[in-house]
Amino acid sequence: MNQQERSAAERAEGIRKGIEDYGVLARGKAELLKHLDGERLTPGETFLAKCYDCTGYYADGKEDCKTPTCAIYPFMPYREKKPDKPKRELSEERRASLRENCVAPRAGAWIETHGCWARQGYWLSRAPRGRVD
Fold first, then answer.
1. Residues 6+ apart with CB under 8 A from 32
2. Which of 11, 67, 88, 104: CA 20 to 30 A from 119?
3. Could you give the number of structural domains in the chain?
4. The whole model's pTM is what?
5. How confident is the prediction for the chain on average, in pLDDT?
């Protein structure tokens, strides 16, 4: 093991000790420990782990960090107020197109429309195995 790998392992062990001493059970703890063990994280797990690390392992409690300039603040698990999502506005043409494409020719029939499989107005990514009428 070279000097750089040894220092990275020592840092990871120091972080693990800090989590054991000061960290509370909160969203992001398991993800950070998973990262320190060298396992891969999903993007969502990465955000949780970084928030856990950045807030000092939530030692002061599970609270909003109040750092809206942070790039991952929208994913902060303990944000006080989450922004309202704007409602999508559909044109009448689009509504008519959706209504037209969701109608099955007969009850219970599977149809393919625009590359999607539909049954009685419900969209699926693909038809169930062995069940194409």
1. 15, 19, 49, 52, 53
2. 88
3. 2
4. 0.56
5. 78
